[in-house]
């Protein structure tokens, strides 16, 4: 009898062990802190700040059983998590180095686009499904001198990089409160592929900061997790602890733009300073390298777009993100 009992328990052990390993591989962290640095200095073919000049932010992602009732939406979801963010952005005209050498600028008409500072906070929710995910985000903040974007760029140039201090921030867009809603949906075309993956989706912005819609498509090559768990789609909080990623991602989107407050000023004030000339359709490409291991994710993405102001003035910048999960 003893050999039979031993064999029975050995069989049970062999049956349970793979389940335990699988659960360990699927175990994820509960929180993530991300640092975001955007700068057109990362665009190697540019030698001057222009258009979207810089951005820096923090984002905290977390999982919890209940949060503002949002956990009750979408009964068929696999996972849900939430984000809180804070970001500062600075926008400058082209030719800012020429402005720096000018003793005094007398007229806003000297600029092809306004100087603009943007400071905002975000609250976001991500719902993941079998082959897709849905992100929604509320943004609230201020455009104008109260953002302190000009002062921070001036301090950085004087004390860190030694770049010229740009005249013209005194003519930046006036203070205004901004409120925006953003929603993104992405669908996975081939979730079982091990090394090459394609997807399709789109993003919508509504509010007095941006009004636009942007269908997008892209692919990944390398070692990656599903789109619902991947750092390539800002879902690295759901990346299993034992898994890692190293891949290249390319994305293309077409933006149909109805309004951009950083260029056109106050949506509700026709007399407010802003530039009316705006292309309503522009193309945006991004390519990036993504690496995740254990509790750390690092990625660098280069972004390029056709002219939002005019067709001849393309723009490029880079973004560097570091996230730590705990």
Task: Output the helix-strand order.
Answer: HEEEHEEHEEEEHEEE
CATH superfamily: Outer membrane protein
Strand order of the largest sheet: 1-2-3-4-5-6-7-8-9-10-11-12
* Main β sheet profile: 12 strands, antiparallel, barrel
Q: How many domains make up the 3D coordinates?
A: 1
CATH class: Mainly Beta
Low-confidence stretches are 8-25
- Helical residues, percent: 10-25%
The total of beta strands comes to 12
What share of the residues does DSSP label as strand, in percent?
over 45%
- CATH architecture, by name, is Beta Barrel
Work out the helix count. Answer: 4
Average pLDDT reading? 88
Pfam families: LpxR
Protein name: Lipid A-modifier LpxR family protein
Structure characterization notes:
Pfam families: LpxR. InterPro entries: LpxR (IPR018707), Put_OMP_sf (IPR037107). This is Lipid A-modifier LpxR family protein. The protein has one domain: Outer membrane protein (Lipocalin, Beta Barrel). It has four helices and twelve strands. It has a twelve-stranded antiparallel beta barrel. Residues 8-25 have low confidence and may be disordered. It is globular and about 60 Å long. The chain is mainly β and 326 residues long. It is 14% helix and 46% strand. It starts with a helix and ends with a strand. It has helices spanning 2-26, 96-100, 149-161, 261-264, and strands at residues 31-39, 51-62, 79-92, 116-128, 132-143, 176-188, 196-207, 210-223, 245-260, 281-293, 296-305, 315-325. A hairpin with a 3-residue loop joins strand 4 (116-128) and strand 5.
């Amino acid at each position: 009898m003893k050999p039979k009992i031993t064999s029975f328990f050995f069989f049970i052990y062999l049956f349970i062990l793979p389940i335990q390993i699988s659960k360990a591989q699927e175990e994820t962290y509960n929180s993530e802190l991300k640092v975001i640095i955007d700068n057109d200095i990362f665009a190697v073919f540019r030698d001057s700040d222009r258009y979207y000049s810089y951005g820096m932010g923090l984002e905290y992602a977390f999982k919890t059983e209940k949060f503002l009732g949002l956990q009750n939406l979408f009964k068929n979801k696999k996972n849900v998590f939430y984000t809180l963010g804070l970001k500062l952005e600075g926008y400058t005209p082209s030719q800012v180095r020429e402005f720096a050498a000018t003793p005094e600028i007398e007229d806003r008409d000297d600029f092809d686009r306004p100087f603009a500072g943007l400071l905002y906070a975000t609250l976001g929710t991500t719902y993941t499904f079998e082959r897709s995910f849905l992100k929604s985000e509320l943004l609230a903040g201020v455009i104008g001198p109260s953002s302190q974007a000009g002062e921070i760029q001036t301090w950085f140039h004087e004390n860190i990089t030694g770049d010229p201090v740009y005249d013209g921030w005194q003519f930046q867009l006036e203070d205004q409160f901004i409120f925006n809603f953003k929603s993104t949906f992405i669908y996975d075309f081939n979730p079982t592929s091990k090394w090459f993956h394609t997807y399709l989706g789109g993003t919508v912005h509504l509010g007095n900061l941006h009004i636009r819609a942007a269908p997008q498509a892209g692919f990944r090559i390398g070692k990656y997790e599903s789109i619902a768990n991947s750092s390539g789609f800002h879902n690295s909080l759901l990346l299993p602890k034992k898994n890692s990623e190293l891949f290249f991602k390319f994305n293309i989107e077409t933006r149909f733009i109805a309004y951009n407050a950083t260029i056109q000023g106050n949506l509700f004030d026709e007399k407010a300073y802003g530039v009316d000339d705006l292309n309503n359709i522009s193309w945006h490409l991004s390519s990036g390298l993504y690496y995740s291991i254990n509790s750390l994710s690092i990625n660098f993405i280069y972004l390029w777009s056709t002219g939002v102001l005019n067709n001849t003035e393309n723009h490029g910048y880079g973004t560097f993100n570091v996230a730590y999960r705990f």
